[in-house]
Amino acid sequence: MKRVRSLWFAPLFVSFLVLPGCERTPSEPPAGSTASPAADASTPPASLRSPMPPTTPAVPPDVKAPPADATKTPSGLAYRVLEKGKGSRHPAPTARVRVHYSGWTTDGKMFDSSVTRGQPAAFALNRVIAGWTEGVQLMVEGEKTRFWIPGNLAYGDNPRPGAPAGMLVFDIELLAIE
Hints:
Elements lengths: L1 H5 L3 H13 L48 E2 L5 E6 L12 E10 L4 E4 H4 L3 E4 L5 H8 L6 E6 L18 E10 L1
Antiparallel strand pairs: 1-2, 2-6, 3-4, 3-5, 3-7, 6-7
């Protein structure tokens, strides 16, 4: 019985803790908070959001074949710099890089894109198709380049099921050499 009498103030104490928060409307941030009214539980914190909002890149107008002004390497890789980079350092053949990219077949079908996923990709250059290994080494950080990769430097003309055949076109942005 003593225990019951000594806890009579507990509901009153809890109401002092809870009720001040009930005065806010759902769109108001807590007192002292720097959150915007638009931020709510359905919006992930900035640290968890994608560094680039997902978009669908347009099909390049020159997807069918490299233009006359494209640079060609002895292997048959063709490329054109779309945006110059900031640095002077090129990745080594085994370097780990972080990139944004989109890839198309020559009929204009996009088959893969980190841009549409909104997340850059990271990998070692010796773990990708030969055209990427050769091409990305020509780039510097911050550079965006379009590559026309012949089938023999990609997945071939008769690739494994699910892989695109023949020449492929990639827009690659080298974000970082890790």
